[in-house]
Amino acid sequence: MDGYKGMLIVISGPSGVGKSTICKSLIEKKLNNVELSVSATTRKQRISEVDGISYYFKSEHEFQEMIYRNEFLEYAKVYDNYYGTPKQHVIDKLVKGINVILEIDTHGAMQVKSNYEKGVFIFIMPPCFNILKTRILKRGTESKGDIKKRLESAFGEIHEIINYDYIVVNDDVDKAVDKIVCILNAESCRTNRYKIDFTEFKEEFYD
Amino acid sequence: MDGYKGMLIVISGPSGVGKSTICKSLIEKKLNNVELSVSATTRKQRISEVDGISYYFKSEHEFQEMIYRNEFLEYAKVYDNYYGTPKQHVIDKLVKGINVILEIDTHGAMQVKSNYEKGVFIFIMPPCFNILKTRILKRGTESKGDIKKRLESAFGEIHEIINYDYIVVNDDVDKAVDKIVCILNAESCRTNRYKIDFTEFKEEFYD
Question: Could you tell me the pTM of the whole model?
């Protein structure tokens, strides 16, 4: 996996930090030619979700088959469910020059990193931990046990930031999105993404 | 030299590529808290230039004394003149959180890099070499010999880009400046520039 025209952008951050809102807004801006990767999951479909758009909803058996066929760029068991990124969908987009966003947890992100160092790894941070607690509690879609798991996981994940290239503090969604747009513009200027044809310059020089 | 609040931004590129115009426009935008570092030089003052603003104009003897006292962050002999960046001026600004721009040649840039890896190294490229030739010829302030030297040097410098973090193609000054603004915004989000207080998060978590 190397030399694609598009960039692979990995966005992680603790549960409740606002990753999905940021990613949605980033896509809606239609800048930087970005598209969101659709994950496969074994978790229960929520009423508001559409199969193939929100996630590819899979049975545990189907998911295990995909693992066996090495069809995931990364996968992880989070709480009691599997989540994974189907590899081929991502590659197809990168080849076309589309910048693909993966909104995944830190375990998945590190799997991607070990396979594809050229990825851009962004960690979304809460301005403070209390805001995160409030957001998770307010969501109200989970049991008390799930909430406790989420809070502990959120605290643990913040320690993983050292493995990311960029930290974006989400004190304001628009500002956070603007920062990510800047990161993508800057990354497209990075020397290691350029292929320069010195021959062309040489021909012009001796012309 | 480490741990300053401000960023040290090194901008290089072949003669005639438009570095000065870009830097001037960047300063005028008053974004990113940037200031241009003023170099010392032994070259002859041009009519339009002001001592202490354009450059610190020095005699060769004065310049040699400064080298001897290790007062330069970098210095180089380019054509027949010395150019150098007085160290203390830069440090004073970085400590205050000012982002300092050094507009210097590739030799100087590599000296800075060996002293201060945390610098942001940006190389300005022409969209094609012919444009560079035309710009240098149009300038008309130098002799034929000087022009030849500049052209050869420009061609040589383009090979140094591999040592820079970013390449900004100057096909349009405003766009080039916007890209640099983005690079600075992105750099300020880089994980290695952050100091995170985990204790604060921990206290909130167990609150």
Answer: 0.83
